[in-house]
Known about the structure:
2 copies of one chain form a homodimer.
Chain A: H1 24-34, H2 59-69, E1 74-75, H3 78-83, H4 90-97, E2 107-109, H5 116-127, E3 129-134, E4 152-157, E5 164-168, E6 173-177, H6 182-190, E7 194-195, H7 208-214, H8 221-224, H9 227-230, E8 231-237, E9 242-245, H10 258-261, E10 270-277, E11 279-280, E12 284-292, H11 295-307, E13 314-318, H12 320-329, H13 339-346, E14 348-356, H14 358-373, E15 376-378, H15 382-390, H16 394-403, E16 406-416, H17 417-436, E17 443-448, E18 451-452, E19 455-465, H18 471-488, H19 500-503, H20 507-526
Parallel strand pairs in A: 2-4, 3-4
Antiparallel strand pairs in A: 1-2, 5-6, 6-10, 7-11, 8-9, 8-10, 12-14, 12-15, 13-14, 13-17, 16-19, 17-19, 18-19
Helix pairs in contact in A: 1-12, 2-5, 11-14, 12-13, 17-18
Amino acid sequence: MEARPTKWWGWGWEDKVLRLESRPALAAYLGHRLDVDLSVRRPVASFDQIEVPPSRLSSQDLADIQVIVGEGNLASDNVARVTHATGRGYKDLVRLRTARLDHVPDLVVYPEDEDSVPRLLEFAGSHRYAVIPFGGGTNVVGGLDVHGQFAATIVMDLRRLRRVLAIDIESGLATVEAGIRGPPLEEALNAKGLTLGHFPQSWEFSTVGGWIAMRASGSHSNRYGSIEDLVVGVRLVSPARVLEVRSVPKESHGPSLKELVLGSEGALGVITQATLRVQPLPLVRRFESRLFSSFADGVAALRAMAREDGLPDMAYLADSEETKFAAAGEGIAPDADGIAGRRLAEGSLLLMGFEGTKERVTHRRRVALRHARANSTSLGSGPAERWSHERFELPYLRDSLLDHGILVDTVETAARWSDLLAVYDHAKKALQEALWKDGTAGLVLCHVSHAYPDGASLYYTFLAPQREGHEIEQWEGIKAAVTEAVLDAGAALSHHHGIGEDHAPYLSRVIGEDGLVVLRALKRELDPDGIMNPGTLVMGSA
Amino acid sequence: MEARPTKWWGWGWEDKVLRLESRPALAAYLGHRLDVDLSVRRPVASFDQIEVPPSRLSSQDLADIQVIVGEGNLASDNVARVTHATGRGYKDLVRLRTARLDHVPDLVVYPEDEDSVPRLLEFAGSHRYAVIPFGGGTNVVGGLDVHGQFAATIVMDLRRLRRVLAIDIESGLATVEAGIRGPPLEEALNAKGLTLGHFPQSWEFSTVGGWIAMRASGSHSNRYGSIEDLVVGVRLVSPARVLEVRSVPKESHGPSLKELVLGSEGALGVITQATLRVQPLPLVRRFESRLFSSFADGVAALRAMAREDGLPDMAYLADSEETKFAAAGEGIAPDADGIAGRRLAEGSLLLMGFEGTKERVTHRRRVALRHARANSTSLGSGPAERWSHERFELPYLRDSLLDHGILVDTVETAARWSDLLAVYDHAKKALQEALWKDGTAGLVLCHVSHAYPDGASLYYTFLAPQREGHEIEQWEGIKAAVTEAVLDAGAALSHHHGIGEDHAPYLSRVIGEDGLVVLRALKRELDPDGIMNPGTLVMGSA
């Protein structure tokens, strides 16, 4: 299927691991803070332990589908079915590792041409089979879970719809099939001196269609925008309709259909292709790292930059717990007696990246440093550069933490500047209380990674010893507590991860019951049989 | 009603006119180019010539409505009804001036508080009365025309819903009622050191709700964005639902409801309030004017700036015809023998504005000038500064041209950079052919006023001697020809004026029949009786 296989049970390439043991300072730090015995191991179940029910599709079904997608473009073996049963959220990983999957799709199809997509949807609709569009499989909000009564479930993996259809260098527009992943897309663009500038942490695996479906953001969103800002044209093939958004730079054509496809999470149809804004490759890149005496000071500096249209192209501001964690990851024991260690133990780390022409970088770096300097000291370019090189590695560490029986997950939100520190405190407290509930240790880290004129994102990582045998319930309690806290504080239910199964019960809290009714009407129009990704967003039914 | 009355028959304040005679060079130029005798006058009909049918509302209706909106907040006199019968497009002005209105609303209401809006919609729905939300009344695409069979038509003028509800200085967010116009909003913001930075040519009269409903753009959209970029929260009161979009800087909450309200053109409900991004008032403003040897050279320079994230905050690039017109307006006879005149006769004028901190202005001006210099000569800051001061005056000139029997209208579109010059040529040719069809003279001007990384807008002004007695048919022929040309060339049906009655028949050409079906489903959900602004966007019915 793919030259380099990916793990069925965890993040990323099968041949790539990042062991906690390779970062002894971090291991020592976590062992101490979480009060866990790192010699204890929680190995991954063997694949054979997973109970995979027989596929509910008949041999006639398989023959019919093969006529539609072509030979070799469907798979009903257990590996294909299991690797398409979940995303890569904490709940997903626990289920996979402990061989407790509660649903497995009956078939995986890999359409090779766009024409087969509507035909597959028609076939599925006529049999009342659910269809789950699948991009890179890196969803972290339960977006691939199936709900409702369906005669069968078919996952549509779009990896073979990955052609670059056109690159318009003069306009800076690339039209691509939706199944293309980050690296081959960047490679094709780089060859023309261009970049998309969209680098979410899942970048190696996630796809254009997935980014659009989930309203993704990348590390350089301050410069290039989130995917919403990058998409100018898109095609959504739904069971009943085809929405085709033409690409013009700005238009006044009534309500935006593009903005209905963005965030559609597979529940309205299959995103088959998109036209994206691409920029000239930056000529110069510079990094800066600063240590603020407090997170609040760092937030104030970011806000001042944002209000002056002077944000760094990449900005990552860690609170003091995340700063300690980052320092431990780099081998600087943050609780040590050394001066560096003591400073990091109290400080808040800001990493900044600037890119573009030399003139642009000089200007923006000067503006950012002017605002940063007052309350911070320089740590040179090193930490920001290292972060930039290592950020795609970090998800691999999660699997190693799970090996050691450590719960680790993330939750993210956004709020206006005037609410940001209150939201930060409120959600942090909720996480801490939920983690510590039964007297267990727990660690809550937070950083800001996307800033706007009017506010910023907050991205929490939380860790605790797993409650063995009750991992999902433990996680559900924490997740519910922090979600309530975030919503109580008036912040976003999600900044860029999406709704999925995890957030669907809360969606009416942010868009209103009337908003939900409108989305359901939309779904009825596009997907009258309700077969598209039932379980996410509007939860299938009207 | 208002301290300073506005014209019932033309643009703007009743006590303000801009006569062609006050610009003798321009008058001479137009007289010559359009081959018209400027001594001939086509006076405005007297108000009494307008046949205003009796209001179809019963006295019981009026009593019921008065209970809802309160005494003094409704008007059924002829002046109120006529001034709310149309927008300010060419067709509207011709109809008003010649006393040929084909529909006049039965009542105008001025809700004073938001609560009365849903109650009014409920009342109207139960009687099957159409409701037309009305902001500043400056619509230029027939957006206030009524279609379909309704027992009566009520215009809801939102001018009394104009409070500034909250200004969050720290976040740069202002929450306002939708009926507020440009100047009082800027005044309230300026008092706090802030600006919205949204300055459409209708700014003195148009409202926040109107901008949102039509997806408006202002002269400084390169810096501040179009209204789509400025709105973070909005409330839409529709007959069946209330859509309430909460204001967070970015969210991944599924399809965007905000983007359904943007461009809703009164056909989905009434926009009652919005939360807008506001910026610090610029500390420094600088202007530059350049003359390129050709429009294509100017476009290339703008494109180079855009591709480098280095656009001026305001950029206005006139083609050679519009450059001559502008020169004539300033008293420089462009066909004269003088050197300045000869240069202008061949050149393409680029006006640029830069604003913000001194550092920002210095940087962006340097980048823009670097790209502009190669193919242009400096005309100093004067022309750009004068344009900036005079731009709200120009619509007054239109009325004077009509006094002289000159057809004048505008049409605007947008296209990607690689298509822009082809679209420019194609639409220009279509306009010229349509104008010249019967051997009459005609003049087609064009400028670029909004630029993006991937393309730019094109804004045409066309002038010709009116065909007396057949003004509307003459205009319809031209409008149809240029609209076909623009769509054939793959450009936007509208960049920022919207759909209205004029563009509604073409909407499926840009969003597809399936897109239209989705909009109709949306309308059915929000406005099941189809009473909201029937005639615009989806043309009322499913």
